[in-house]
Amino acid sequence: MIRYIIVDDNPNTLTTVKAKIDSISKDFGLHYVASYNNSKIAYQTVNPNDFDLLIVDFEMPVYNGLELAQKIGVDKKIIFLTSTTQNEQKVINSLDIAGYLSKPFDIDEFKNILKNKVIDKSLMKSSTSNTSPITLKIGVHKDIRFFPEQVYYITTSKNINGEQSDKNHVHFYGKNDQLLIKNVYISIKNLIKDLKPYQFEKINQSTIINLSHLKERDNTNISLYNTLEPFQISSKEKLDFVSKLRTKFGI
């Protein structure tokens, strides 16, 4: 999963770029985080842990694209949007630059940059972030904290040990189908929104799995390492799941 943000002082450019990226997001495992039309607000707001790819206009007031990238984009992949090729040398010699795109935004050029310069590093970053604990807010009065790599799957269904969460709740399971966190009051639909950046994927209406522990996929059947629980992808989720799987492993 490649999490990206867009920064450009022209709102029309933000809208156009996002719309074009949306057309290929499933194929490349792209996850939109946010857009900003003000570089200062972006600097004050963005958490560097929340994105992998920065798509930024080179020429902006307050902080230009290079200055903003130096502030929030260290160790990130960066694609500059520029209306002139005069900025090429500055871009090439700065930071960890994936590439630059002349305006108007060309989706085919963007796809080439993704394939050649972005995907491998983003996946590497994603795997390292999976070792840090995350905190989920559950309603107003409860938070839960856990290490993503310790969670193998999350489900509302009865598992191989006969355990099942209460209605409108989920169970978190780990290695050897061990129940780690019991009866968390949240839906699968809402939970996957928070967990997608950590290599979790929804495979049907009742279950989310951690792709880090994926052992095998045989058509719609899935198995994970160190678990006995069988899993099945729904027809609705299959196409998107397979696409993300191939992007993740470079298949």
Radius of gyration: 20 Å
Give the amount of beta strand, in percent: 25-35%
SSE arrangement, N to C: EHHEHEHEHEHEEEEEHEEEEEH
Strand order of the largest sheet: 2-1-3-4-5
How would you describe this protein?
With 251 residues, the protein is α/β, with parallel strands linked by helices. The protein is 33% helix and 29% strand. It has eight helices and 15 strands. The protein has helices at residues 11-22, 25-28, 39-45, 65-72, 88-92, 107-129, 188-195, 235-249, and strands at residues 2-7, 30-36, 53-57, 77-82, 97-102, 134-138, 142-146, 153-155, 170-173, 179-184, 200-204, 207-210, 214-218, 221-224, 231-232. Strands 2-1-3-4-5 form a five-stranded parallel sheet, with helices on both faces. A five-stranded antiparallel sheet has the order 10-9-8-12-11. It has a three-stranded antiparallel sheet with strand order 13-14-15, with no helix packed on it. β9 and β10 form a beta hairpin. The longest helix has 23 residues, at 107-129.
